[in-house]
Amino acid sequence: MGLYLTFLVFNCSQQTKNDFPILKGPYLGQKPPGKTPEVFAPGIVSTESVELNSVFMPDNSELYFTRKTPEALYVIMMMNRKNGLWTKPVPASFSGVYEEADPFITSNGKQLLYISKKPLKGLGPPHDILILNRNGDEWSKPYNPGLPLNTEHNEIYPCLTAKGSLYFNSNRPGGYGKRDIYKSEYINGKFSEPENLGGSISTEYDEGDIFVPDDESYLIFVSRDRPDSLGSGDLYICFKSKDGKWTVPINMGETINAQGYDYGPIVTQDKKYFFYTRNNDIYWVDAKILDSYKPDELKDREK
């Protein structure tokens, strides 16, 4: 029996080595993209399955993304860098039982937010926002912050800034369209009543999947069926103006948006790359492309 187990372990080890490539360096050792979006880590992260959402730890030691399993369950996958080598994607320790997606990690690496259909009396499903705290090299058990952040309706795609501003989208009653974008502030240990951004951001159309950097200088989101849409869902961007209000969102154009569905935006903590999802694969592009959308008046102010 001991000899058999030794052979089994060795054989599995050899299979793992043969089946999974050696990946070294930041961003899985992938060749950095230019100003044209490219599929990220084809055959490793972006595969024949459905993959969406992606976020790295600030020190680039771990990667989390969402994958749809053959059983049609959305699971958050993770990879980490051990002794300089990236491991094979496996379900994250907190995922795999309920439908879960949309991982987001704060800029200090101390909190991970995601959405889940994990039942909770009085609230979800459909989807609630759950939060994990970092304890050393591990994540705590997830907790549900409850009302007024989470309701019996969908709350998805969280983005939490260093100042405690939580952006997310929801189909809760009282909005302007199918889904709207909301903002809640973390004050005295709890989240405030969410405020609908309204204006030209939350409209009669369907808006969601928000990314906002820590300084809240710009906002990227997806919207469906707007008159200037190039596909079934496009990414839009707006900026904070001199008076603190958001500029009118503009379509990010054919460079970013294809004829299909483009969503799941996020910029890496080192501000080098812009990741998003296109037609069931994860793409990345040089984040400098975001400067090309900035209004001239804001560019002049930075000079």
Structural descriptors:
about 300 residues; mainly beta; Neuraminidase
Please explain how this structure is put together.
It is a single chain. By secondary structure, this protein is mainly beta. The chain has a single domain (33-293), classed as 6 Propeller (Neuraminidase), CATH 2.120.10.30. The protein is built from 3 helices and 22 strands. The protein has helices at residues 2-19, 253-256, 296-302; strands at residues 38-39, 51-56, 62-68, 74-82, 85-86, 90-91, 100-105, 111-116, 128-135, 138-139, 155-160, 165-170, 180-187, 190-191, 195-196, 206-211, 218-224, 234-239, 250-251, 262-267, 273-278, 281-286. Strands 2, 3, 4, 5 and 6 form a 5-stranded antiparallel beta sheet that branches. A hairpin with a 2-residue loop joins strand 13 and strand 14 (190-191). The model is unreliable at 1-17 (pLDDT under 50).
Map the helices and strands.
Blueprint: H1 2-19, E1 38-39, E2 51-56, E3 62-68, E4 74-82, E5 85-86, E6 90-91, E7 100-105, E8 111-116, E9 128-135, E10 138-139, E11 155-160, E12 165-170, E13 180-187, E14 190-191, E15 195-196, E16 206-211, E17 218-224, E18 234-239, E19 250-251, H2 253-256, E20 262-267, E21 273-278, E22 281-286, H3 296-302
Antiparallel strand pairs: 1-22, 2-3, 3-4, 4-5, 4-6, 7-8, 8-9, 9-10, 11-12, 12-13, 13-14, 13-15, 16-17, 17-18, 18-19, 20-21, 21-22
